[in-house]
Amino acid sequence: MFGRPPRHDAPPAAPVVPFERSPTHQALASPRLVIGPNVKFSGTGLTMITDGTVQIDGDFNGDIHAREVIVGSEGVVQGTICAEDIRIHGRVTGTLRGTSISLQPCSITVAKIFHHTLTINTGARFEGMARRSDNPAAVTPNWDEDGIVDLARVKAEVERPKLEIVEPSGAL
């Protein structure tokens, strides 16, 4: 009635296809490990090693070696964190080694920090020592071309408690 009649020579619209990741992108996606808010890991010589992301929302007492570590706002870590990217929202006591370390508002960190880039946001509490390294490889896990951490280097960095056998004395 009003306007022009529809054109019949216009190309048809492309069909809508749902988004899918390419097989290459799926293969490159790194694994993600989440320790929930009601989970506690502790033990003598406990070490977590992954080439993916670790998110701690519970309690972890040990060492973490990963590409990325996120300590959530309710997360508590006591030990060493060694990763390319470290973001602290919760509480950490120990040692941090990373290329990029970020202490978020409301985080509490009592640690020795070895970093290439350190960001301390307003509201973050930090007590300890921070030392910058011009060589990012000196502060992160030694990943080989397959994405596997050099276990020999990790074992050398992690202090393992030694078991000592004590013989009972004869006098009681």
Give unreliable regions as ranges. 16-27
Termini separation = 111 Å
Q: Please tell me the overall pLDDT.
A: 78
Inertia-based shape: elongated
Determine Rg (CA atoms, Å). Answer: 24 Å
User: What share of residues are in beta strands?
Assistant: over 45%
Count of runs of 4 or more consecutive helical residues: 2
Strand runs, count: 8
* Helix content percent band: under 10%
* Sheet with the most strands, sense and barrel status: 8 strands, parallel
Topology as H/E string?
A: HEEEEEEEEH
What structural class results from the helix and strand content? mainly beta
SSE topology sketch:
Elements: H1 23-28, E1 32-35, E2 40-49, E3 53-56, E4 59-71, E5 76-88, E6 91-103, E7 108-120, E8 125-132, H2 151-157
Parallel strand pairs: 1-3, 2-4, 3-4, 4-5, 5-6, 6-7, 7-8
